[in-house]
Amino acid sequence: MKPERQAERSVEMTLGQLRKLDAPAAPSQPTPLTLEDLYRAHRMRLIRLAILLVDEQATAEDVVQEAFAGLYRNWGKLRDGAAAVGYLRTAVVNGSRSVLRRRKTAREYNPPHQVNARSAESLAMLSAEHQAVVGALGQLPPRQREVLVLRYYGGLTEAEIAEATGISKGTVKSTASRALEALQQILNASR
């Protein structure tokens, strides 16, 4: 198996497992109609998405809270209920980017420190191989991590990833390819 394909399979299995763990229960109503319904149905999945992007649970929760606050402020401007989930996903990606930019700026002035704030439950539910993949994801550049997380955890198409991240579909494809190559190198180096 090609190294790139092996990395893709590892990412797909790991983030697919997380997606199954976070899958919302079958809705009792077709589409959430209120902000409270949206919060109940999507909060945990959005937090997991943010954790995979910013690698810190408390910060991820803040990003998601800000996304919901932004949705509340713009609730009257939404074209339909389905657009709310897309709005939230985009807001989480953009909020995560802002956090990473601020973190980078802060690190220029202070020596960086490693904090792994993942919950014990989330790591305990993953095998050692899956933990290695999640650790390797944390070593990728932010855009590469975003694309892989949105693809394999978020289950988004290239077009949806392009929309959520504000980059072209071609850039999504090339970024994913480079990310999988880099991930395979990280995984091989850790073995």
TrEMBL record:
Q: Which GO terms describe its molecular function?
A: DNA binding; sigma factor activity
Q: Which Pfam families does its entry note?
A: Sigma70_r2, Sigma70_r4_2
Q: Which residues form the RNA polymerase sigma-70 region domain?
A: 38-104
- The protein's organism comes out as Tamaricihabitans halophyticus
List this protein's GO terms for biological process.
Answer: DNA-templated transcription initiation
Family per record: Belongs to the sigma-70 factor family. ECF subfamily.
Report the protein name in the record: RNA polymerase sigma-70 factor (Sigma-E family)
Q: Which NCBIfam families match?
A: SigE-fam_strep (TIGR02983), sigma70-ECF (TIGR02937)
Keywords attached to this Swiss-Prot or TrEMBL record, sorted alphabetically, are: DNA-binding, Sigma factor, Transcription, Transcription regulation
Entry's InterPro entries?
RNA_pol_sigma-70-like, RNA_pol_sigma-70_dom, RNA_pol_sigma-E_actinobac, RNA_pol_sigma70_r2, RNA_pol_sigma70_r4_t2, RNA_pol_sigma_r2, RNA_pol_sigma_r3/r4-like, WH-like_DNA-bd_sf
